[in-house]
Structure formats: C-alpha cells, structure tokens
Design goal:
mainly alpha
C-alpha cells in the first residue's frame, strides 16, 4: 500500500475469527489493539481513547439526539428502528473506556 492512501474498508477485507466470543461480553462495543501498536504509538492511542471518551460523554448527555443518529443510520440502510427503543438502550448502556482485566 502506498503512503497516503486509505486502507481498504472492512467490507473489502477477508475477516477470520480467531476466538469465538459469543456470550463472553455484555455489550458488543469492544475495542482492541495490538501490543506493538500501543507500545510504539502512545500518542495516537491516547487520542483514540480521548475521542471515545468524548463520544461517550456526548451520548450520555444527549441520549435522545444520539438515538436519532442510530435510527437515521438504520433507516438509511433500508431498515426501521424505534427512537424510543434506541434511547432506552443508550440510557441503559454502560459507558467508559476500560482496560481488559
């Protein structure tokens, strides 16, 4: 890949499951990184963590507006979604970025 070109999207990649995690986590919003990336790019990793924390804070402060973002996305893809159901789901979701223990 040439420098400056965006990497292919997930839909263009062959994905392989290394370990099935069905039933292991209470919520699918998990973020992982490779140790070598974390060790060699601490500033980038910190920026990513801060962006996730900022997003979480906005969703917690604006659950109805955040729910609308999700509903709009579902509808844009041809589905249907309930604004009230999305809001309830967001209000009941645990927020925060935590290390794996």
């Amino acid at each position: 890949m040439s420098v400056g070109l965006a990497p292919p999207t997930e839909s263009e990649q062959h994905l392989r499951t290394l370990i099935a995690t069905d039933g292991l986590f209470s919520h699918p919003s998990l973020w992982f990184t490779r140790r070598d990336f974390a060790d060699t790019n601490p500033e980038a990793l910190q920026a990513i963590i801060e962006a996730l924390q900022e997003s979480d804070a906005w969703i917690e402060a604006n659950p109805r507006e955040a729910a609308q973002v999700f509903v709009d996305d579902v509808e844009k893809r041809g589905g249907s979604a309930s604004l009230d159901a999305w809001e309830a789901a967001l209000r009941g979701r645990p927020f925060g970025v935590n290390p794996v223990t």
